């Protein structure tokens, strides 16, 4: 039986309780729309989250879900997907959850290439605890816990994921629903780990953090759209991205022509080029790549696990407890 | 010199002993654990009852020749029923001066020392802190000293095998093993077969170990000094059946397989390597043909998280660890308790706190198992009492976890985990079954209510992903007592807290009453749990042999306690609680039943000796 689901089918009966104007609302709508459009059977979907504003997400999705512990969602999701590889497993996390307390689980899930899709809502602030600097906050940021300015150097989440050899890494913007849905669809179709960094505006504690990329008067100049197979051009084609000696940099196309502009190939096995592209910006200030950095095929943990079970069963036959209990050697008494 | 003589040894000059305790001791690189394990298998094949106790340094290779680097393996073999690895050895094999120095105080007066004279040279003597050679200064006159130049004899024996350089002396443990096999009339085949199998890919090592073993055996035959002190330990009179020799970490793994099978669920075991629990992971990893999935996680927290994830989607999630790891898993165990999902957490306890004594045994995680979580977070705790008992204990942990939809902590310890004993194999067809029922349809007029409970067990239903129409969310926030939706209603939190408590209490209706090893008119009750079983029982029996009236109970269930425990405690004027901690069960009993218990505490990383239990019983009776 094939059931067709609508966006409404993915909406739970729980009242959505994010702050009015929060970017999370848009992301939730994008995810629900994507799920319906992708034709995913909702009983096969599991959303796992940690702690933070974003972590309330599963309560609003009428699928199976677990609102778990701060930072641990990738570990729990790994267990879910390893146990039941046929499920569609999604992690919703934030910059504090995924990159601070849960950094270890994030990199190991990506390293193993677990078939889980990780949505990293990056608002560059701790929202739920009311406004401390996060591991993606810019250096010098003044918050309640850094009144003289943060002295922490921030993570670049895309660089971090690529460093862990994530097989799919993308970046999108909360307000751009079409692009978000495009990224979700590509992540869903990718087999293996996918990390999507979503720039998400926290209008209460860190408003307009992404204004360079979203404001009408600046977005064209600052959004570098990465499209597989196409030259990386932006600012109305006036600028482009070139690569030299492993480093990516911005060139003036009007001056140098577009021959030196790099043609994006997201499928490269070597993550170096994707990493170079991720270094074009550090934090959403000035020209920043948006889109799929990497979408490469790599061995998937769940497939290897199932293969080992199959080969062990083929070699030894299905498990026989009696023979295991006697496997140390036995002797008879009486 | 070794000979190739193969005639049957004369038995007339053998000393018949009902039981003998042997300790193999040497440098951690000398292969003493292997020698002990091989001697164990040969003894099992011979039909002895036995118990073993390995004792190895935490360092993989402590400096050679030092006291810190001494590794030992004790085995107690007997013609009768056996309980413990023995208090004091009758025979000490000392491969170097440090091994002698570290173990000589434990040897029984008049006991036998088998020493490798080649290693008693200046450098090794100095490293062990001897100014003069104890083999020569008369300080061992109270013992029966047997010596052999094992390095030289081994070199000679293996010269045609093809092993070279440092490999040559690696075979000397087999020389010692051969000599002991002779002394105790062990059959040679189990060891030679094992060597042939183990080293089939390394023909030179196979040849060297075989030659060294035979040379040691023949050295016994041809050397008078060994011949007059051989022992004969007759086969034990055990109940009839098929026996095997098991260590506890293995039986826990097998019990988990049996538990998952009984529940009709796939087993998912996630763990992070930690001494002394890693062997549970190793063992389960070998059995993928059962469909078992093992997941070596990036840390302890991820391990329990992955196990909980597997449970959420309808498998039996299990994680294993030791004390430091249990501390790290605490927050996730609380989530499992809040989400009300089955989860088994195996804690193979070791000496603590902090890194403590990783390779030594202790029972000091009991309070952490029962209380070590934030919030009001009660959960069932069960314990294993011996290597063979660990099988049933693991099945019981699985049963409670699935039936009550709760995390369950299973306490083992380093002693159970690494020591061995014979086990009469159960008939697999007779093992308990407790099939799991998943929710498949709405259980309420308003749809599926994830927290609508079974009135008897208070367990909530288990609906797993893939089931259409039962989509729901669980999580760490307090739940509405019916829908499971987030609820901040004050009265709901109170009701849910008490319900979770009552659910754990309900387990008491579902476990056997405590059985007393009754002694008519006993004036003292000894209450124990976990790996102290064998030493406590031996101490109790030895007290009775001397005419004392003693009763004994041993607890498997530590939370909740068996429902008749309070009444049993009240029957006896004195209650002794021996534990390898500072009196944790004793305090729990005092708190629960207001019983004036007396704690016998030992925290030295070593099991109790039966004599310590007996001495305390008599002291209390005579007080």
What does this structure look like?
The complex is a heterodimer of chains A (334) and B (623). Chain A has 334 residues and is α/β, with parallel strands linked by helices. Chain A has helices spanning 23-38, 73-83, 95-101, 103-112, 157-163, 177-189, 211-214, 219-222, 253-256, 272-278, 301-316, 321-325; strands spanning 45-49, 64-67, 88-94, 116-122, 168-173, 194-199, 223-226, 233-234, 239-244, 247-252, 288-295, 330-333. In chain A, strand 5 (168-173), helix 6 (177-189) and strand 6 form a beta-alpha-beta unit. The longest helix of chain A has 16 residues, at 23-38. Chain B has 623 residues and is α/β, with parallel strands linked by helices. In chain B, the strands form 5 sheets. Chain B has a 7-stranded mixed sheet, with helices on both faces. A 6-stranded mixed sheet of chain B has the order 3-4-2-5-6-7, with helices on both faces. A 4-stranded parallel sheet of chain B has the order 19-18-21-22, sandwiched between helices. The longest helix of chain B has 20 residues, at 203-222. At the A-B interface, strand 1, strand 2, helix 2, helix 4 and helix 11 of A face helix 1, strand 9, helix 9, helix 11 and helix 12 of B.
What would you call the structural class of chain B? alpha/beta
Helix content of chain B: 25-40%
Give the quaternary arrangement of the chains: heterodimer
The major beta sheet of chain B can be summarized as: 7 strands, mixed
Task: Give the helix tally of chain A.
Answer: 12
- The residue-averaged pLDDT of chain B reads 92
| Low-pLDDT regions of chain B | 1-12
Q: How much helical structure, as a percent, in the residues of chain A?
A: 25-40%
Strand order of the largest sheet of chain A: 2-1-3-4-6-5-11-7
Question: What's the overall geometry of chain A?
Answer: globular
Features:
heterodimer; A: 334 residues; alpha/beta; eight-stranded mixed beta sheet; three-stranded antiparallel beta sheet; 31% helix; globular; B: 623 residues; seven-stranded mixed beta sheet; six-stranded mixed beta sheet; 20 helices; 36% helix; 18% strand; disordered N terminus
């Amino acid at each position: 039986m094939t059931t067709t689901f609508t966006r409404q089918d993915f909406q739970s009966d729980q009242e959505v309780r994010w702050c009015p104007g929060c970017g999370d609302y848009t992301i939730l709508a994008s995810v629900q729309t994507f799920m319906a459009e992708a034709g995913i059977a909702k009983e096969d979907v599991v959303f796992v989250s940690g702690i933070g504003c974003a972590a309330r997400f599963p309560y609003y999705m009428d699928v199976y879900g677990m609102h778990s512990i701060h930072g641990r969602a990738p570990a729990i999701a790994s267990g879910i997907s390893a146990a039941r590889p046929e499920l569609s497993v999604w992690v919703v996390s934030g910059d504090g959850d995924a990159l601070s307390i849960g950094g270890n689980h994030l990199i190991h899930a990506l390293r193993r290439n677990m078939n889980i899709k990780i949505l990293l809502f990056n608002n560059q602030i701790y929202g739920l605890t009311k406004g401390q600097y996060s591991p993606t906050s810019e250096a010098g940021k003044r918050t309640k816990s850094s009144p003289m300015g943060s002295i922490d150097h921030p993570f670049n989440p895309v660089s971090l994921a690529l460093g862990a050899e994530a097989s799919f890494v993308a970046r999108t913007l909360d307000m751009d629903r079409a692009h978000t849905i495009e990224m979700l669809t590509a992540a869903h179709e990718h087999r293996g780990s996918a990390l999507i960094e979503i720039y998400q505006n926290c209008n209460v504690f860190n408003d307009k953090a992404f204004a360079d990329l979203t404001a009408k008067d600046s977005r064209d100049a600052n959004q570098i759209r990465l499209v597989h197979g196409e030259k990386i051009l932006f600012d109305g084609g006036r600028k482009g991205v070139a690569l030299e000696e492993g480093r990516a940099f911005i060139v003036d196309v009007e001056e140098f022509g577009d021959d030196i502009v790099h043609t994006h190939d997201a499928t490269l096995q070597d993550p170096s080029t994707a990493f170079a592209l991720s270094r074009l910006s550090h934090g959403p200030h000035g020209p920043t790549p948006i889109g799929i950095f990497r979408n490469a095929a790599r061995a998937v943990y769940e497939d290897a696990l199932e293969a080992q079970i199959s080969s062990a069963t083929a070699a030894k036959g299905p498990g026989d407890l009696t023979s295991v209990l006697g496997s140390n050697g036995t002797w008879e008494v009486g | 010199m070794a000979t190739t003589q193969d005639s049957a040894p004369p038995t007339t000059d053998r000393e018949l002993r009902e039981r003998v305790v042997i300790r193999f001791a040497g440098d951690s690189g000398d292969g003493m654990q292997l020698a002990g394990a091989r001697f164990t298998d040969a003894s099992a094949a011979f039909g002895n009852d036995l118990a073993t106790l390995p004792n190895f340094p935490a360092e993989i290779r402590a400096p050679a020749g030092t006291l810190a680097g001494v590794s030992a393996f004790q085995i107690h073999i007997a013609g009768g029923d056996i309980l413990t690895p023995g208090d004091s050895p009758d025979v000490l094999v000392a491969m170097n001066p440090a091994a002698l120095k570290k173990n000589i105080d434990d040897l029984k007066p008049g006991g036998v020392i088998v020493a490798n004279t080649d290693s008693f040279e200046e450098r090794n003597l100095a490293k062990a802190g001897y100014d003069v050679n104890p083999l020569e200064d008369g300080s061992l006159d109270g013992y029966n000293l047997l010596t052999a130049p094992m390095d030289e004899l081994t070199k000679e024996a293996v010269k045609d095998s093809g092993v070279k350089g440092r490999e040559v002396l690696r075979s000397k443990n087999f020389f010692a093993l051969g000599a002991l096999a002779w002394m105790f009339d062990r059959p040679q085949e189990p060891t030679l077969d094992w060597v042939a199998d183990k080293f089939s890919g390394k023909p030179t090592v196979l040849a060297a170990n075989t030659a060294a073993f035979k040379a040691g055996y023949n050295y016994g035959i041809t050397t008078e000094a060994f011949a007059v002190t051989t022992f004969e330990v007759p086969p034990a009179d055990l109940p009839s059946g098929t026996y095997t020799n098991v260590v506890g970490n293995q039986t826990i793994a097998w019990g988990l397989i049996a538990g998952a099978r009984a529940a009709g669920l796939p087993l998912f075991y996630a763990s992070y390597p930690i001494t002394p629990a890693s062997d549970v992971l190793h063992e389960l990893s070998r059995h993928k043909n059962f469909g078992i999935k093992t997941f070596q996680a990036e840390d302890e927290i991820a391990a329990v998280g992955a196990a909980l994830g597997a449970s959420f989607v309808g498998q039996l999630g299990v994680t294993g660890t030791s004390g430091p790891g249990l501390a790290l898993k605490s927050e996730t165990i609380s989530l499992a308790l809040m989400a009300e999902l089955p989860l088994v957490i195996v804690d193979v306890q070791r000496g603590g706190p902090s890194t403590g004594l990783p390779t030594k045994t202790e029972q000091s995680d009991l309070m952490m198992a029962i209380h070590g979580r934030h919030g009001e977070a009660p959960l069932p705790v069960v314990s294993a009492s011996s290597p063979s008992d660990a099988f049933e204990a693991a099945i019981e942990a699985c049963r409670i976890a699935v039936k009550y939809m709760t995390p369950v902590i299973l306490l083992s310890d380093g002693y159970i985990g690494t020591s061995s004993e014979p086990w009469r194999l159960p008939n697999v067809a007779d093992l308990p079954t407790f099939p799991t029922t998943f929710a498949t349809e709405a259980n309420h007029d308003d749809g599926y209510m994830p927290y609508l409970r079974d009135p008897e067990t208070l367990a909530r239903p288990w609906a797993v992903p893939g089931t259409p129409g039962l989509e729901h969310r669980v999580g760490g926030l307090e739940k509405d007592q019916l829908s499971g939706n987030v609820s901040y209603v004050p009265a709901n939190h109170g009701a849910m807290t008490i319900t979770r408590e009552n659910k754990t209490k309900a387990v008491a209706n579902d476990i056997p009453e405590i059985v007393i090893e009754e002694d008519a008119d006993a004036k003292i009750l000894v209450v124990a749990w976990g790996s102290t079983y064998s030493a406590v029982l031996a101490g109790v029996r030895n007290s009775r042999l001397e005419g004392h009236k003693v009763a004994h109970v041993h607890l498997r269930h530590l939370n909740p306690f068996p429902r008749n425990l309070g009444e049993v405690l009240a029957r006896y004027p004195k209650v002794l609680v021996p534990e390898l901690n500072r009196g944790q069960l004793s305090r729990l009993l005092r708190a629960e039943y207001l019983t004036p218990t007396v704690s016998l505490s030992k925290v030295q990383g070593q099991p109790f000796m039966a004599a310590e239990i007996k001495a305390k019983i008599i002291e209390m009776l005579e007080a």
